[in-house]
Amino acid sequence: MSLFRSEQMEFYNLVIPRESSWDVMNTLGYFDSVHIIDYDPTLPQISRPFSNYVKRCDDVMQKIEQIDGEMRNFKIEKRYCPDVVDLLKKRNGTHKQFEELEQDISKVADDLEHQQQTMDSLQEKKNTIRENLEVLRNAVAFQNEDSEEASLLGFQKMVGVILKEDELRFKRIIFRITKGNIHVEIMDIQEHFIQQDRRIVQKCVFMLFYPNGDLTQKKIQRVIESFSYNKFDIPTSSDQHAQRIAMLENQLNEADQLLHLTITQINKRLQDLAEVKYNCSWIEEMRILVTKEKYLYMNLNMLNMTNSVFHGQIWLPQGQDQKIQQALRNLHGNDKQLPSGQIQECQTQLTPPTYYKLNSFTYPFQEIVNTYGIPRYKEINPGLSTIITFPFLVGVMFGDVGHGLLLFVCGLYLTTEDARKSIFSGIVPMRYMILLIGLFACYNGLIYNDFLSIGLNLFGSCYNLVDGEYELQEDCVYKFGIDPAWGSSANQLTFMNSFKMKLAVIIGVTHMTFGIILKGFNTLHFKNYMDFFCEFIPQFLLLLCSFGYMDFLLFLKWSTKFEDTKDAPSVITTMIDMVLRPFDVPEKPLFESGEQQRSIQLLLLTIITFCIPVMLITKPLLFSLKKKSPHQYQQIPSYVPDEDPNPEQLQNDMQKEQSQPHSKVSIQQHNEHDDIGELIVHQSIETIEFVLGSVSNTASYLRLWALSLAHSQLAEVFFSMTIASHIGEGGFFGTIGSIIQFPGFALATFGVLMCMDLMECFLHALRLQWVEFQSKFYKADGYLFKAYSFTNIKSNEQDD
């Protein structure tokens, strides 16, 4: 089962002649099973053999982005590639393919750039002609008595066009440089202008009246130039005025026709680039092919080139070597003269990468685990149990049949094809997790008997209402969940608090015990028997004899019928007395006799007391004895093969591993400490952390109770404050009131409970998964298997 533990990995040397390097890497790219090791991670990309090709790919990608930007500006729809690998197989070429791609894309980009420059110059010319026309048409409005008086007084005038958004700033600057000795007239232009950057702006005509003087005129001209505004001359006679307008109108028509023709040509050219040939548009096809070339050369740069031969090291999942060797042998067909690459299996002390075969169902749960840390090679993967435990923990806190059903329906919708094209496409990868959370929320809601804060009477009741009081029926056991009669009792909140608190503790102890059991399986798998006997056994017994015993008392108390509830012993008091007064006979025993309970508790307390020093000193003591023994203790390498290794070979391999600066840590935790003093300190910290953590982690699971209580109380408040009173009123007015209040109830339920509270429950479940559960066994110091595969190349739609 690949999800339980990592796939078995094998180490190979990869040898590729330079002449066949592109062909070999192109062949390996179609296998989703090659992890290439960078021979020198500290070496910058610019110092690698094919850094020039990578830079050229970046330059071509930049041109593709420019073309794509023009297509977006012209609102040209393009088709994305549904299957990248299938496209690459259809367009499978040679190492000269990139040269052709570079030439074709550069030619298209240059042509579009030239047409774009022509369009921009025509647009600028059209705007200038329009501005001149607007100045001439609005000049009549400025020729009033005030302007004539200004001319008689020796004032000069200047006319131009400014942006409407710069009007106030322009007036303020002009006023300051002339010290207020100027008159400004502004008139808005009704029609909008299209700028070169495709912005639509509004402009206005200005006319300035200022006293004669070269200094003032130069200042005003500098301001106009700083704003990049145009200023125009106004003809003195009416005939010249009319002739100028007619000439500009003709020029405007010509510029408009040329601009329209240029836009049509650009649009047609872009439409050609959007045509579908290999199930996607040409531009997307080019993007994927160039991305593939860059990806190929980036991985080829991870190999070491010596004398025109590339040497590299790779990891392969077990059983994949035969397929790759066969593909490399068939690389050049019948042409035996062309050299081909080869792989050679060899031994190494490098820790293999962790590799799991994931699908759309297991992916989000594995991401939760990987966010905390990558599993160590061959370590038990928490992702498998997370598929059930994580949604269940969220469901415990979010327990409500109604809200769970809404979440379940949301998960069902996310599994449809329509969801991938909607605004919810971002959470589509989480669809199965949402589905399971909704399912477990319904399950726990049935246990709590809670449906939108309303109790459900599904199986009748074990209580009869007699004279206003509930009486329990003889030998009646409710079939599933909480009896609906508790919903109308006076101590309903107290009862539910007690039940949910005890349930949270039971779930928490069970969850942590499961984590410790997984630690035992890990130690047995790695044949680390010292950790098995010195850590797993005492930790398991300590947790079982303390909080496991407390859970046992809870079940025993639930299954015992007391004549008077006041005679029922307190489990918390029993646990406290077990530690503080271990030799006293319990006054209210849960067992048949107090003597029997005292004997059992003394035995458990003895085991707990014995386990602590075992965890603290046994491991350092054994390690010290092995150090003093004639046969020096040999460290076990981090990668332990299935077969028994040769002792001499093992010793040599360990010496090589110690000389490698980048070697991974050892699987056996005690091998990480060569100094006995360091091991004692480490083991003391581990023991104290586990003992104190057992208490704090158990208390941490009470968040299941707290969040569940908050969820149910909020749902009850929203229901009672909105539609509950109208439903109870009944009749016509009650129906109308319920309809009016229902939007408020729905919005509060969706915004607070379905969004905020769900997110809160999700985060608290993450805390329980990472800290309380995974800390019991999970090392999380591995690294992922990163396959060199063309499936890693995504279309532009997937990137968006």
Write up this protein.
58% of the residues lie in helices and 8% in strands. The protein is of the alpha+beta class and 800 residues long. The strands form four sheets. Strands 1, 2, 9, 10 and 11 form a five-stranded antiparallel sheet that branches. The protein has a four-stranded antiparallel sheet with strand order 4-7-3-8, sandwiched between helices. It has a two-stranded antiparallel sheet with strand order 5-6. It starts with 8 loop residues before the first strand and ends with a helix. 28% of the residues are buried. Keywords: Coiled coil, Hydrogen ion transport, Ion transport, Membrane, Transmembrane, Transmembrane helix, Transport.
Gist of the model:
The protein is α+β, with helices and mostly antiparallel strands. It has helices at residues 21-28, 51-73, 84-90, 97-142, 145-152, 167-177, 214-226, 238-273, 282-300, 321-329, 363-372, 382-397, 401-414, 417-420, 431-448, 492-525, 529-559, 571-580, 594-628, 647-659, 676-700, 703-722, 724-729, 731-773, 796-799; strands at residues 9-17, 35-37, 155-163, 183-188, 193-194, 200-201, 203-211, 230-232, 304-306, 309-317, 342-345, 463-466, 469-472.
Sequence-ordered SSE layout with sheet pairings:
Elements: E1 9-17, H1 21-28, E2 35-37, H2 51-73, H3 84-90, H4 97-142, H5 145-152, E3 155-163, H6 167-177, E4 183-188, E5 193-194, E6 200-201, E7 203-211, H7 214-226, E8 230-232, H8 238-273, H9 282-300, E9 304-306, E10 309-317, H10 321-329, E11 342-345, H11 363-372, H12 382-397, H13 401-414, H14 417-420, H15 431-448, E12 463-466, E13 469-472, H16 492-525, H17 529-559, H18 571-580, H19 594-628, H20 647-659, H21 676-700, H22 703-722, H23 724-729, H24 731-773, H25 796-799
Antiparallel strand pairs: 1-10, 1-11, 2-10, 3-7, 3-8, 4-7, 5-6, 9-10, 12-13
Helix pairs in contact: 1-9, 2-4, 2-9, 4-8, 6-7, 11-12, 12-15, 12-22, 12-24, 13-15, 16-17, 16-21, 16-22, 17-19, 17-21, 19-21, 22-24
